[in-house]
Design goal:
Blueprint (H helix, E strand, L loop, with lengths): L3 E4 L3 E3 L17 E3 L2 E10 L1 H10 L3 E2 L5 H12 L6 E6 L8 E2 L24 E4 L7 E4 L5 E8 L3
Parallel strand pairs: 6-10
Antiparallel strand pairs: 1-2, 3-4, 4-10, 5-10, 6-7, 6-8, 8-9
Length: 155
């Protein structure tokens, strides 16, 4: 590579001497919030099929990790036609021990509707519930719901 003069007095530097920050942009149809992009998927699928659909898009079912993120998602969902939307967490391995699907990390932030996250052994997946102002509920993983895919900044 040839040198490019960027300062006439102190010398010359090559372009390799400079790094530019990578700008992370969401694909068309995705919504950005902080360092993630979100796709609100309109088709209803089981939990596993919804996760597989997100993975086919180089994403995953949403991992809600803060109050700010949860507020953004609840607000956005309230502007869509009413439906439940999958959250990428499950307590299938141990009832009441919620983990992020795919990496097994313990979930730290919750927004359960009072009385939810019941101890029902047949309700092992979580959704934003449309009839409960998009607070969270646990439901059967085989039921069909819409989903929120999340793509995080690869940096």
């Amino acid at each position: 590579m040839s040198s490019v003069s960027i300062c006439g007095i102190d010398g010359q530097w090559t372009l390799e001497d400079f790094t530019c920050p990578t700008v992370f942009a969401c694909p068309d149809g995705w919504e950005m919030f902080q360092d993630s992009c979100y796709l609100f998927v309109d088709s209803c699928k089981s939990f596993t099929n919804a996760e597989n659909n997100c993975r086919s898009l180089d994403a995953r079912l949403v991992h809600v990790e803060s109050g700010e993120e949860n507020t953004f998602l609840r607000s956005y969902l309230s502007g869509l036609p009413m439906a439940d939307y999958w959250i990428g967490m499950t307590d299938e391995d141990q009832e009441g021990n919620w983990k992020w699907y795919g990496n097994g990390v313990d979930v730290q932030f919750f927004d359960w509707k009072p009385g939810e996250a019941s101890s029902n052994r047949h309700e092992n997946c979580a959704v934003f519930g449309d009839t409960i102002s998009y607070t969270w509920a646990d439901v059967a993983c085989g039921s069909r719901r819409k989903s929120v895919c999340e793509m995080t900044n690869p940096e």
